Each structure stands twice: as C-alpha cells, then as structure tokens.
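Good day; I would like, with your permission, to put a structural problem before you. I would ask you to consider whether the tokens describe a fold that such a sequence might reasonably adopt. The full record is reproduced below for your convenience:
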Amino acid sequence: MLRRAVSKVPSRAVLLMVGIVVTSTSVLAVPIGAAYGENTFTPGNLVVSTSVWATNANVTSGSTQLPPNCGGTVYTKAKCVTAIANGTYPQVFNNATVDGSFAVQQPIWIDEITPSGTPVSQVEVPNSTMSGVTSGSDQMTTSFSSKSELALNDSTDNQYVDFMGYTSPSGALDISNSDSPGAIDTTNADSATPTYRSVGQMDQYGNVQFTETNAYSGDNGRAAILNTAANTIYMAGNAGNGKKPEPQGVVTGTGSQILPTNNGPESGQSPGATTPMGVFNIVQTGAAADTAAKDTNFRGLTVSNNVVYYTKGSGSNGVDTVYFLDTSGSACPSGGSGLPSSSPTLPSAGTWTPPAYSTSNASLGLTTSNPGLAPTNMCILKGFPTAPASGASDSTDYPFGIWFASPTVLYVADEGAGDNTYSTSSDTYTAAAASTTAGLQKWVFNASSGSWQLAYTLQNGLNLGVPYTVPSYPTGTNSVTSLPWAPAVDGLRNLTGQVNADGTVSLYAATSTVSGGGDQGADPNALVSITDNLAATSLPVGESFSTLMAPTYGQVIRGVAFVPTTQPADALPEAPWVPLLPIAAAAAVGGGFFAWHRRLRLRSSI
C-alpha cells in the first residue's frame, strides 16, 4: 500500500486523505503532489538517502544493560554488558566498543538536490517521531550506525526509487542485529525485539509502499531493486549473528534474495519463508570451503542489460569482488569467474526456482556443521579479484556501489579498508591516505581477452586520510578510543551516474570514513561528485571530486539515485481537491481505506 511520506515546507500540519479502493486486493491513491501545489521530484535531479539523529537512545552510562533484554531466557548467547556512554549523539556510539551490535534506530529522509548540489526538497519516510504514526501504522526506520544500509536504486522502469529498512520505531536499540520474526536464532548474541526488514518504494510524488520480509535475520538488508514488470524485488544483504551452525531460516535468508511485492499495509502483511535468488561458494574458485552462508555477504546491487550484479566487500569469508546472477545456467564455468549470457532474462518471484538448503554437498563443503545452498548459480565477473577475503589487507579491494556507464564501462565505488591507524606527527589516518585502491575505480571490458580490466582509480579531491572538522561535532581525542574524533574520508560507498552528450560521465557517491569514534558508521560523511571522460583508459589529468552535500552534525548520508520520473501505471489521474471523506465511508467502497501521512516541517541541522 502506498503511503504518503512527508514533504518539508516552512509550516506545520497533518493531513489525512482517503484513497479509493479499486479492487479487493489493491488500494490505490490519488497522487496529490502536483494536485495540491506541492513540489514533486523533478526529472534530472538527484535523491539522497540520509538518516538524521532525532531520538536520543534510552541509555545511561554505568547502569543500562546492553544488549536490550539480555537477561531473557530465549537468547542463550546474549551476554550482558554495562553501557559506558549516555544516549546522546555521537558519544552514545562509544557503546559499540562493549556491545558490538550496538545501534539506534532513526528516521529516514530522502533529500532532493540538483546535480550541482542545490537543495530542492526533503521528504521524511513515515516513522514513530511523526504525529499520527502509532505502533500499528506503516513506518520504516534505519539503523543510524549501519553504514551498509539504505542504498537507493531506481526500479527497472524508473517509476520508483527503492531502499531497505526496518519495521521498527525510532529510538529502538540493536535492531540491525535482531532476528526477523520468521527466522529466530536462539544463539543470536543480540536479544533485541525480533523485527521484519522491509523494502520501501517511493514514487515521484513521495508516496511510499512497504513490503516486509523475514530475510537478513540477525543482520541487515542493504539494497533493493524493484522489477516493476514482474512485481518482483531483488535484494542484497547479510544474515546471521549467532553461533554456528546457523539455523536454516538464517541460511536461506541471506545474500541474494527475491521477493514478491505486497501492496497491503504492514499491519496486514505476514511474511513467510524467504526465497534465496543467487548463491556463490568460494570453492568455485578452487579455494577451501569456509562458512558457506557468509560467502554471499552482499552490499552493492544493480541491474544492467537484464543481469543482476552484486558486490561483496566486507567480512573474512568468500571473495571481496563483483558478482552476477547466472539465469542461463551456462555462464559460470569452472574456476568461479565468467561473463553473463548474450540473452539474459530477469527472474520473477512467481516462477523462480531457488537454490535449496543443503547439509550434504561434499563438492561445496556443505555439512551439518556448515550448511549452505546448492546448486550455485552466481560467479565472479571475469577479470575482477578472485583472492579469498581471509587474506585481505589495506591495499585490497573493498567494492561497494556499482554503476554501468555502458556495456563496456563499469564504475565501482571502493570504500577502503576501514583502518583507522592514526599518525600524530602527520595528522593523518595513514592506511587511508596510502590506499591506491579506495575511491572510484573504472573498469573497462577488453574484448580481446574477454575480461574486465581496471583502467584507473579516481581519488583526487577526496583527501583520503586527512581529518576534517564538522561544526558542533566533538574535537580533540575520544577518551574511549584514544584517537581523534575528527573523521577522514576512507573511500566511497553507494553511487550513481549519467552519461552526458559531450562524452563525459557525471558520477555521484557517498563517502566512507575512518575516525576515532566508537562506531565509524556514525561519522558525518559527504556526497561528492566527479566528471570523467567516458572513453579514457588512463587516468585523466585535472579530474577532481567536489562536495555536493557537506558533512553535517547528526546526519549520515547513505544512498544516491536519480529521481523517479515516470508516473506509476496504476496511479489515478490527478483530481481537484474533494472534501475529506469519513473513514467508514471509504471502507464501504470496496472494504478498505488509505491514509496519507503528511507532516509539514523543515528539517533543522542538529
């Protein structure tokens, strides 16, 4: 069910609009954006996902026990620790040094800006801080410190921008490592309330529809893309936060997932078992088997030419590299690397045959103590790294966002190693400053060799490893970590781009950081842009990153995409305003009603 998100203008109001039920299973809404004089997303502009610190955590240093509910009887591995910091930002994230799963749910904002960085509008996704949003209302929040969350991707037809979060109120603790309700793991080291992950689809008017899922139990969903024609969502993420071997529901709910859309309210959704879409196993490269369910700890996600691509860039399992889903059954030869077929097809949730849970596949190293999925139907994009992540170093690749400029040019955002080794004498984070792989990598397909090759890495202007100041943010040394509070750019995460008429490419990306903060995912970061020569195969002179959205106290930037530009096929024509109908009357017109949540306010810098 589409829900109206919150447009920001300088006044306050709450408006409840009644929609029109057109079938017994689908509730559609009048797209009120233009009809009521509001700003809708403008084609050609960017949308940027942010989380803004709005709710202090209910945590008291020296007394609060973490994780929440750690004294319960269900979760046998949840060890109680005492909070070392109060619930105010950013000091609260020093608690991550004693509770490795520590996180605080916060609202999601979608900012519209021009490609040059001029702010246009702001939309807040429904959440519990908003007037009229109750525990039973449709809502979504994000884990403030979980840096791999909240990627933005345009749907396959550009009607929506898609993202992932949680059906959880703002201020809740440790939700990003909670179990999902349908995949309980009693050995999970975090005892937060079981919580559904959910996918949000936002159209050009700011209407939001949520689809809940049991995927990514014990960890987080990172990215989603809607295949509108098939009513199917593709997802990327990670699962599991408990003792090995992981339960079946965790194993089948990790990595690459496929999900049918749900157009009902969250309160009426009952997500069932998860459906894995793709699986990769490190033994495909000839390496020894490791924890099979962690080989697909995916973060980046894109669809290009009917092929679904993923990245993995964290964890000590599998390979940190770029992958693709093989729907042909013949594109992944022995060796673990390959190229998509020449006539690929996108899968549909209604007809997809998923890999199956297995504890007895010797060729993949799957046993009762190392369960996984079979058969494999993914492989590494030929030419990209194949070395095991267990041997990763500061100079290794850590791919995050990916974007195809053409069938033969692929840009990969590399976030860096996350090494916050600091030199007082040079006032730099030395590993970040020395990296040659972090930043924006340009890969070009070599038809002669039949593989992708790294052309160069764009870094100029990122000032890798150099600390920067943020107004109102702490200065000096964090007494808990004995490192400076000031963050520095370590690389890039999510990105998007567009090819220009003059043969250049404009690229936009969120920065990753290193710092002395207790959790680097809580560092204020930036949105940056650069223009590259599409045809160049060696590093051009003079190209440099510029800042479109500067680091801001209490804000983290996560994803970036172009605004959705096509009116949804099922949207009703814009109509003049009509008097507000009673809810009972709306229910009589087919058995349902639609509530628009619209709260008018400006987001202030906090």
